[in-house]
Amino acid sequence: MTTLIFLGTFLGLLAGCYLLQRWELRKTYQTKNITLMAFLIALSVLLTNLLSYSFLVVGTTIRLALGNFLLFTTGMIFGPFTGMISGLLSDTLGTLINNGGVYHFGFAFAKSLFGLSGGLVFLYKNNKWLFLKIISYFSLNFLIYSFVISPLSVASLYNSYSLAILMGVGKLLRFPIEIGIYLPLVFLSFNLLSFLLWRVRGKQKKNKLWCFRNGRVILKKTSKLPKQKNLVL
After folding, report:
1. What pLDDT does 228 receive?
2. Is 60 helix (H, G, I), strand (E, B) or coil?
3. Which of 69, 74, 81 is nearest to 135 (CA)?
4. Which residue of 89, 152, 175, 210 has the smallest Cβ count within 10 Å?
């Protein structure tokens, strides 16, 4: 039942994202952009399943699955539709290469929400409060993932609500530390990729990217770009 609810919600949100971006997707899915999408998905799988890191803090074990912040960044750059697809592919591929992993669609749905929430940062055609949007959208999505979707998926998978409650308590202790690590990675990765993409984009007006719908987004203003719409994060 839980799987059906997650699946239905995923399909509904994906359809909404497609309708939102349907006129832009043809210009977004160009060879260079598709290559970058594939690279980010592969890197997300690698960081989550092969290069994750665990350490002890105040008696609790924190496992850094670093791939999730890249899904949020993918959504910011290419939009919510691509973000959701990237999350689905990342979890599916991760399960295939992780011999000890057990597949449940709830985890794929959670990863797709990271991509969706990243795309919502540039939903409106103004870039006011961008810094606050990134922090609030990522934190809210991480809360939903940690205390709703993940525990429900574990309870459904192992038929044990006590295990889900115990998991939720552990995530509550780890939440502020994980947020403090993931958010700087979001800002770093987005600003690096958006800078490179803007340089590559040049005069190719047909190359539509979700993150540039309101102009270029940079860390600070620069006098060298007087005719460009720059934004301070």
Report:
1. 45
2. strand
3. 69
4. 175
